[in-house]
Amino acid sequence: MSEILNETGYRQTKAKLASLQHRLEAIIARQDLPESHKAAVIQSYQTMAGQYRREIKLFEARHPASSNA
Amino acid sequence: MSMLPEFDDDGNLPAGIHRCSFEELAVRFGTGSPEREVEIAELDEFLKWAQQKAIKRILVNGSFVTNAAAPNDVDVVILPAPSIDAIILQGSFEMTWPFLQILVAADDADFEAWATHDFATNRDGKKKGVVELIL
């Protein structure tokens, strides 16, 4: 179960998600990693992105005004 | 000699990457609740596996490295050596170590990005530290 974020944590998690997605794009573009290593790295990013999204959605469900901010 | 600093007022390690041996990690974080005992046992098994499989660096994060009495799980980031047979990284880690959430880093810079960006704050947005195991 995801723990509830506070307002500061919510903003920080949104920033972390954006940064993670940016880093993921860079990983996907890399040609120097063995395919199976790269696949494991991408899977790790997707796992963490999913966790961030879950926490963000839970916060926004409890604070409907925040998702429009 | 202890290498891990004391907790801050929020029960977290101070910001940064704190290096220590598995033995020190076990003394500091491996007792006090059934959760901690199971988690340190899994980390011990995982460390033995990692040492056989050319894992270069291991980061330990999450409530396990705080003063939480009963942490839910342990976040682990691994950096494989370039020589590793990377196919083993696609195994189902959670089937073997259900209390460990294992993430795979691409290289040293990526490993440190997990430590200093993603895991550098807690859910309240407060700065905190992580542990790197000395292999």
Describe what you observe in this structure:
The complex is a heterodimer of chains A (69) and B (135). Chain A is 74% helix and 0% strand. Chain A has helices at residues 7-29, 35-62. The radius of gyration of chain A is 14 Å and the shape is elongated. Chain A has 69 residues and is mostly helical. Chain B has 135 residues and is of the alpha/beta class. Chain B has 4 helices and 5 strands; from the N terminus they run E-H-H-E-E-H-E-H-E. Chain B has helices at residues 22-29, 34-52, 93-96, 108-118; strands spanning 16-20, 55-61, 74-80, 100-104, 129-133. In chain B, strands 1-5-2-3-4 form a 5-stranded mixed β-sheet, sandwiched between helices. In chain B, helix 3 links the parallel strand 3 and strand 4. In chain B, helix 1 runs antiparallel to helix 2 (34-52). The longest helix of chain B is centred in the first third of the chain and has 19 residues, at 34-52. Chain B is globular, with a radius of gyration of 14 Å. The two termini of chain B are 17 Å apart. The model of chain B has no long low-confidence stretch (mean pLDDT 92). The interface between A and B is medium-sized, with 29 and 21 residues.
Shape of chain A: elongated
Total number of helices of chain A: 2
Oligomer: heterodimer
Strand order of the largest sheet of chain B: 1-5-2-3-4
Distance between the termini of chain A: 25 Å
Largest interface (CB within 8 Å) is between: A-B, 29 and 21 residues
Uncertain residue segments of chain A: none
SSE order of chain B, as H and E? EHHEEHEHE
Beta-strand segment tally of chain A:
0
Distance between the termini of chain B: 17 Å
Layout of strands and helices, then pairs:
The complex is a heterodimer of chains A (69) and B (135).
Chain A: H1 7-29, H2 35-62
Helix pairs in contact in A: 1-2
Chain B: E1 16-20, H1 22-29, H2 34-52, E2 55-61, E3 74-80, H3 93-96, E4 100-104, H4 108-118, E5 129-133
Parallel strand pairs in B: 1-5, 3-4
Antiparallel strand pairs in B: 2-3, 2-5
Helix pairs in contact in B: 1-2
